[in-house]
Known about the structure:
By secondary structure, the protein is α/β, with parallel strands linked by helices. The chain contains ten helices and ten strands. The longest helix has 16 residues, at about 235-250. The chain starts with a helix and ends with a helix.
Amino acid sequence: MNEKKSFQDNENTEGLILGKNPVMEALKAERPIDTIYIAGAGTIFGKITAMARNNGVVVKNVNDQKLRQMCGSAAHQGVIAVCACTEYASVSDILEAAEKKGHAPFIIICDEIEDPHNLGAIIRTAEAAGADGIIIPKRRSASLNQTVHKTSAGAASWIPVARVSNLASVIDELKAQNIWIYGTDAEGTDYTAADLRGGIALVIGSEGFGMGKLIKEKCDFLLSLPMNGHVNSLNASVAAGIFMYEAVRQRNM
C-alpha cells in the first residue's frame, strides 16, 4: 500500500506524520512537531527518540493499538508524529509582546488542562481578551494540535503559546519580573476583590483536580467564583473566561 496515499485518504490522519522515514525527515527539517508516539524498539526508534528530544519534542511510548486508534488503517510503521498547528513561543516572547503593547504583562497559565477543546476555548478567549500569551506544561497537558486550533477558531495562530518543562520554575521567573501570580481555586477570595491591573498571570487548573499542590503554593493569591447553585464548579474554559474578563474590565478602567 502506498503510505502517502493512505495518509491522504484517511480523514483521521489530519495533522499526523506516519512512518519512520517521514517522521525522521520532519525532525531534520525542524517542522513544528508536538508529540511523537512510538510503538516499537530498535535502532531506528532510538534515533527518532534522540532527534525528538534534541528538538524539544515530547516522545510517548505506546502500544500498537494506540497508533491504530490514531490513524485507522493507514500504515504507521510503529511511529506517528502529531504536528503542532503553529510553532511554540518562549516565555520571553510573551513578555516582549507585552512590552511592545506598552502595558504590564497579562498572561494565562494552564496547569494540566488535558482536554484539547478546553485548551482551544481558553486560547480563543485569551486572544479576544488581549492577553499577551499562554503558558502550558510539556507533560500532562493538551497541546497545539489540530483539535485545539479548530476549537480556538484560529486564535492559536495569533497569540503566543509557550510550552515549558517546569511550570513551577517559570512561575518563579515571572515573579522576578514583578508579575503577580493569581491562582483560581474554590478556597480563594472573591475574584472581584482582587487588583488585576498590574503585571499578572492567571493560573487555570485542570478540569478534574484544579491546580497541582506545588503550583497552588507558588501563587501569590487565590481567587474564586461564587457558586450559588447545586453545581459547585464550572468548566475550566468557562471559569477562565470569567476571570480573564474581570482582568479586562479592571485594566480598561
